[in-house]
C-alpha cells in the first residue's frame, strides 16, 4: 500500500518533518477552493497524459487555472518512465502550496534485505531527472553529500525525523523526491513522497490500512489484486496460474485488465468480492475464471458467480470459464482464446 496523504500528515503533525501545506481533492471545484485558500503565486514532473497534458505536477496562479488543470488531469491516464501499459486513471489530486527553493535533492530509506536494517540513499541530483541520473551516472547517488557544516546539521536533523517516521510506521520504502534545500536558512523541505508498507504491518497500522484503493481493498478479503491495462478480467487461484492465464490471454492477442488471485482458502464471500472488484472496472468487458479444482471447490465458484450477480446486478460482460458451463471450454488455452474473442465481439 502506498499513500502520500498519510506521509504528509504524519510527517508534519507527529514528527516535525517540513512539508508543504496542502489538501486532497477529487473534483475540479475542490481544487479551485484549495488553490484559493493556499494563495498561489505561479510544471514540475515529466510525463504526458492521454489528452496531451505535459507533466503530472502543474503550477497555477489562480483558482480558475487550478480548476482548468484539474479537468485535464482527473479521469485521464498519465504516462511516465515508471508507467506500464496505458497507465491508471487519476481519480484524485493533491493540491499544495508553492515553495521557493535553491536545489532539488533525492532521499530514500529502504529495507536492506541482506543486512536486515534500513538503508539510506541521498543524491544532490534529485527532482524529475533522478531516473536518468540512476541510469547514466549512478556514482552521483553514492557520493558523500556533506558540503558544509550547515548542510550536515540541517540534513541530519531532517533525516533523523524521517527515520523515526519510517520505523514507527513499519514502512518498507520512504522516497522523498525532491527534497529541496533553502539556501537562506540551510533547511530542507519534503515536496513529494512515496511511502510504502508491507501487509505484515496491518495489525499495528490500522490508520494506514484504512486508506485503500481497489488494489489494497482486495487485501482485506484475502485476495491479491493487481490492475493492468487491458480489457479481460480474470479470477484464478494461485499466483503461478494467474501468470499463466495472463500469458495465455496475451498469446491469443488479448490483454488482461487485472491479475486477481483468490488463493487456496477462498470462500463464497471472498469470491463474490472478487467479482465485485472486477466489475467496478469499466474497462473490463469479459471475465475469464480459471480455477484449479484440486485446491477449492468449483461448485462454490459457481455459487459465488450466482451470488455476485444477485448482489450487484447482472453482469454486463460475458464470463468465460474452463469448468463451469458459461461459454465452457474443456481446455485452458481454448478458454483463453474464447475470452479474447468475446472481449472483442458485440457480446461485450
Automatic annotation (TrEMBL):
Residues of the ATP-grasp fold succinyl-CoA synthetase-type domain: 14-144
GO cellular component terms attached to this protein's record: mitochondrion; succinate-CoA ligase complex
Keywords: ATP-binding, Ligase, Magnesium, Metal-binding, Nucleotide-binding, Transit peptide, Tricarboxylic acid cycle
Example of a GO MF term: metal ion binding
GO biological process terms, semicolon-separated: succinyl-CoA metabolic process; tricarboxylic acid cycle
Top-rank taxon: Eukaryota
Residue ranges constituting the ATP-citrate synthase/succinyl-CoA ligase C-terminal domain according to the UniProt record: 235-313
Pathway(s) this gene product operates in, as recorded in its UniProt entry: Carbohydrate metabolism; tricarboxylic acid cycle; succinate from succinyl-CoA (ligase route): step 1/1
UniProt-recorded name of the protein: Uncharacterized protein
Species in which this protein is naturally found: Cryphonectria parasitica (strain ATCC 38755 / EP155)
The organism's taxonomic lineage, starting at the top: Eukaryota, Fungi, Dikarya, Ascomycota, Pezizomycotina
